[in-house]
């Protein structure tokens, strides 16, 4: 049974006390003189630091365990190595220079380290290594342009690059159609020549089969070019880029004159003349 009791009003107002049985409680109290509201005191929650430390150590343990299992599995190994863009260098040369092999750890060597190692070959102008997980490594090589060829001591064909580096062709079928350099012992002049050849359009060099040094006291950079059309061209390295475009015109005129051989001089003045053998031939016939 529920009952209520009205407490007389005081300076602060009325209080209404209600109760059920022997349990009484204040339902509404505007204020009572001398009575301060009691603050609510909450009990402290139990600390769980020990549990957190245990969970942290368990987490670290399982992460370390997974790391060990991963690096011992086949997923952390190199499965395939591809090489792209190479023409002068062989795939085997590039992979050997990179210092990696199928079965090595995928994360043991960075792409930047591989780029630096392959660049030391001297034939690569730019190297980019792409690593794709899991286990795929692609080495993309951009070689220096081949501007000429030469024969090595073993008789193999080597490509001469714009930086004057000589690199034997791994596959002769990839050899570019370029002039052969013979007798070049002066490294500085050879480098000047390769840089000049790199600046000349390929179409102007198609008829040139060989280039030899022919220095004089007055012209230390004098050279002789031999053409596939059987003409001899005398010029200088410093004149070559400017005057090589005249070669086709001279060859055309000589052929129209039925002169199947001759010397074309592209120096301070340009002209064509007969070879010394041609001028000496009539005298030898007369003696006979």
From TrEMBL:
GO terms for biological process: cell division. Its main location: membrane. The chain crosses the membrane at residues 54-71. Residues 76-144 form the POTRA domain. Keywords: Cell cycle, Cell division, Cell membrane, Membrane, Transmembrane, Transmembrane helix. Coiled coil: none annotated. Signal peptide: none annotated. This is FtsQ-type POTRA domain-containing protein. It comes from Paenibacillus antri. The lineage of its organism: Bacteria, Bacillati, Bacillota, Bacilli, Bacillales.
């Amino acid at each position: 049974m529920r009952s209520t009791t009205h407490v007389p009003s005081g300076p602060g107002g009325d209080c209404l006390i209600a109760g059920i049985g022997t349990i009484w409680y204040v339902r509404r109290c505007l204020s009572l003189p001398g009575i301060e509201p009691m603050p609510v005191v909450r009990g402290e929650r139990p600390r769980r630091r020990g549990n957190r430390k245990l969970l942290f150590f368990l987490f670290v343990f399982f992460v370390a365990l997974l790391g060990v299992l991963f690096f011992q599995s086949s997923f952390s190994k190199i499965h395939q190595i591809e090489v792209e863009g190479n023409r002068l260098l062989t795939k085997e040369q590039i992979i050997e220079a990179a210092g990696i092999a199928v079965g090595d750890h995928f994360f043991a060597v960075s792409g930047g380290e591989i780029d630096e190692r392959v660049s030391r070959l001297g034939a690569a102008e730019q190297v980019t290594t792409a690593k794709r997980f899991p286990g795929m490594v692609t080495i993309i090589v951009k070689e220096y342009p081949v501007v000429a060829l030469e024969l090595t001591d073993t008789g193999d064909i080597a490509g001469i690059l714009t930086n004057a580096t000589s690199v034997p062709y791994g596959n002769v079928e990839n050899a570019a159609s370029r002039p052969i350099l013979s007798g070049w012992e002066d490294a500085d002049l050879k480098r000047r020549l390769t840089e000049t050849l790199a600046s000349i359009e390929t179409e102007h060099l198609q008829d040139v089969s060989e280039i030899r040094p022919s220095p004089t006291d007055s012209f230390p950079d004098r050279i002789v070019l031999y053409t596939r059309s059987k003409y001899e061209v005398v010029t200088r390295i410093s004149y070559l880029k400017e005057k090589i475009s005249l070669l086709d015109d001279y060859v055309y005129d000589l052929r129209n004159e039925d002169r199947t051989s001759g010397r074309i001089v592209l120096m301070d003045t340009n002209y064509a003349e007969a070879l010394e053998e041609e001028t000496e031939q009539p005298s030898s016939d007369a003696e006979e």
